[in-house]
Amino acid sequence: MGQVIVITGCADGMGREVAKLLASAGDTIAGFDVDEKGVASLEAELRGKAGEHLLMPLDITNRPGILAFRDAVLKKYGRVDTVLSNVGIGFFGPFEEIDLEKALRCFEINVIGAASIFQAFIPTLRAQGRGKIIAMSSLVGRIPFPFESIYTATKFAIEGMMLSLRLEVEPFGIHCAIIEPAQVSTTFAAKIHKLPPDGSPYRERVRRFIARDDELIKTAPTPLYAANKIVKVLQCERPRLHNQIDFQSSFFLTLNRFLPQPIRDMILVNFMDIRV
């Protein structure tokens, strides 16, 4: 049966490609997504693959629903080997002008959503004496980007949660890993990019930021390329704590580790074409 792998946010993008690759390799996929049509079409694609699957439509903020999902997975398969938190939403805009109520929802989905799926399965992983907990973070989880302050904050929170969590669960044989992509050629960014209103002091720099980001997306890794990198992490018995999927992420993280802050800032604002 291979591994039994739980995947949240599996209806589209990287999560969908990861599920298909794993199922083709003979792993069992247990996943959910709020996108009911996407879940149904993925289920149709997985039929006939080597691995089994259990998919359902579910909102990551529905904590009783997550516990019911966990119970269904354990009833059907009796175990779980790896839990991948992939669900997340973006958030974009000058900090001064953002809606904090909407920002709160971003934290609820990106951070508490990941926490809830991990918390649901940790007792089983601990009782088994083995397993993996893997969180999808981002380059901005370690390198903050302007106009993405809330999204950046959620990814910093994921990184901090995982760094703390691993010290608690590793003695029980549970290994933790973080995956930190930069950009992937999906519609993720396009869905949230929006110019501030006329008269905003940030409008021109945001316009340049969006234009630059649109250019970078054209040469970004595809979801399938990213999924192949992610699958390697999932299949590794003892994955590294920090994992990147592209050269750009590794390059910027290396610079971030060694260069002084003023130089890092200069490189970033020039790279994103938002210098004043």
Characteristic terms for this protein:
single chain; 276 residues; alpha/beta; Rossmann fold; seven-stranded parallel beta sheet; 9 helices; 12% strand; globular
Tell me what the structure shows.
The protein is of the alpha/beta class and 276 residues long. The chain has a single domain (4-271), classed as Rossmann fold (3-Layer(aba) Sandwich), CATH 3.40.50.720. Helices cover 51% and strands 12% of the residues. It has 9 helices and 7 strands. It has helices spanning 13-24, 36-46, 63-77, 100-128, 149-169, 203-218, 223-235, 247-258, 261-271, and strands at residues 4-8, 28-33, 53-57, 82-85, 131-136, 174-179, 242-243. Strands 3-2-1-4-5-6-7 form a 7-stranded parallel sheet, sandwiched between helices. Helix 1 (13-24) links the parallel strand 1 (4-8) and strand 2 (28-33). It is globular, with a radius of gyration of 19 Å. The model has no long low-confidence stretch (mean pLDDT 94).
Element layout with pairings:
Layout: E1 4-8, H1 13-24, E2 28-33, H2 36-46, E3 53-57, H3 63-77, E4 82-85, H4 100-128, E5 131-136, H5 149-169, E6 174-179, H6 203-218, H7 223-235, E7 242-243, H8 247-258, H9 261-271
Parallel strand pairs: 1-2, 1-4, 2-3, 4-5, 5-6, 6-7
Strand content: 5-15%
Total DSSP helices: 9
Strand order of the largest sheet: 3-2-1-4-5-6-7
Q: What's the CATH C level?
A: Alpha Beta
Query: Could you give the count of β-strands?
Result: 7
Number of domain units: 1
